[in-house]
Amino acid sequence: MASGCLAKVVFSDAKHNFLIHYLAAIGLLLVSPVVFGFSGLDERLAAIPLEIISPILGIILMTPVFMPEQNENIYDVVRSKKTSHTLVCFMRILLSAFITALLVGGLSLYMRCSDSQVTARLFASALISALALGALGVFSSALGDSALIGYMVSASYLVMDMFLHSKLKRFNLFTFSDGGTQINLWLAAAAAILITAALILRKYRR
Amino acid sequence: MLFNKECKKILLSLTFWIYSILVVIMFAENYYSEAKYPISKPAKGGSDYGLMVREDPELIMEGASASLMSDFASNRYVCYPYGFYKAVSLDKEDRDKVEEYVTEITAWDHDEILKQIDSADVYYMEHGFSTFPGYEFESVNIDKNMTYERYKEIMADIDDILGGGSAYKVDTLASRYSLVPMTYEDAVKEYEDSISEDTVTGSLARLFSDYTGIDLAFIPVFAAAALVAADRRRKMTELVYSRNISSLKLTFIRYGALVAMMFIPVFLTMIAAAIQAGEVYGDEPLKMHYMFTTTTFWLLPELMVVTAVGMFLTEFFSAGFAVAAQGAWSFLSLMSCGDKLSGNITKFCLICRHNTLYDRSAFMETYNDFVFNRIFYMVLALVMVLAAAYVYHLKRGGRFNGIRLFGKGSLFRRKA
Description:
The structure holds two protein chains of two kinds. Chain A contains seven helices and no strands. Chain A is mainly α. Chain A has one domain. In chain A, α1 (2-35) crosses α2 and α2 (43-62) runs antiparallel to α4. Chain B folds into two domains: 2-40 and 189-396, no CATH class; 52-181, no CATH class. Chain B is built from 16 helices and six strands. The two termini of chain B are 41 Å apart.
């Protein structure tokens, strides 16, 4: 009963609050062939478009999870409900992460069908980068109580990483583009910590 | 005074502090760490002084034609239209067009071209899961009636057919096919050019502006969008609408406050760069004003236009739309000039690139375009602010509510 109610809440959320973000993410994927070549790439060359597009997908899909309650009136109504707001936010994050994985997977599959060497480890690495940057957006938006802050911090991190690559060491998003061959678990850990911290911040938001 | 109030509001906003921190980090990690090594006069007797571009039509036609024959034979052209790798294969119609150009350049007919391809050295390249044949032509015949001007026209057409960013882009022909080793005299001349005309501070100012220009093409839009959207978020819209101040005046005061406040961190990094220049080149005569004049003329129009576009799009659509649009514009502007990092300045590019302390002549060649570009963006910025003021005026009069994605009257109206 409770899980059915929760599913209903999340579905309604997705339909009324996040549909535009899903459309924006799909739009980004559709226009990306104008900028990037996806065919006949070896693993390192294939990592370049994949490790740029995936984090942007993460930013678009995950950052706005707290956006509906930016409006104090809505937040007051949500708080008065029996269903835990933190749990709803967690479900939203899961849904956003799932859609991010779906889109990164779709792009990887398309590239693989276009003769590019997109391996399972490259897919996993790109997905982790997407989730890590998305989690940074989630955390910043919880901290600043504004989705715009979340977008600003996560997009700026991406721009900074494009110029500072190796200086960010374990938190470099472009692992395979820079010649790495191992999945960066530090990013996965950072994503988990940032999301947990964001949920705690939201729970104790005044 | 309203201007001071707006400045205070910006100073207390989180977006402004994040912006300031980013400007400082990027300055410290990019410019400051690079400019701490002084440029020095080349030592006599060295074995390698690097390469330099010398536009030699014969060399260019020879190299580009051999490359064109090789790409034509394999029908695989590597392009970087927006700075990213893209392998282009042409359909029959375009391939025929390129063949016509090959015939015009080489004076070889269809059969002779096929014969040349058959006799070329073949090697195999692995790309992804496939292997492609590559053809190597040691030399290609050039029609003796072919002029360099016509050759450049042909190259421009081929680049168009390939969608841009190819190895035949006219602007990069010399830097790709006409590189010659520098002699000691060439190296000394390049060094002296860098320091004699506008002293070393001219070079440092260009490098500083190049790096900081990348940040200013995107990050200010967040602060602009946050300020414009703040009234709505704090439910102050109706209160501000009812105040006795014209929309034009209010919008320009807010715009002025944003530009002034966001220029402060840039100005502070200019001071830090000037102090560093004084320390590194203390023994040399320096025209220190370049560290402030060149950089301001380079960066202020960019800051102005990005802020103005951010304000207008936020007013007309929403903050999210403004960020997405400015992100796309700055990303494409940055990546499309990735193939040439010095003297890469056109009349309309948002980000002007000159990522070197040398090559002053390349910058001076594009100087007129640079001046036009910066004045154009300054004027565009003012036009965008006027447009933002007009939209604000309409909203204030209740005649327009902006095109919004969420909320009341939006495209994706949330159900009650």
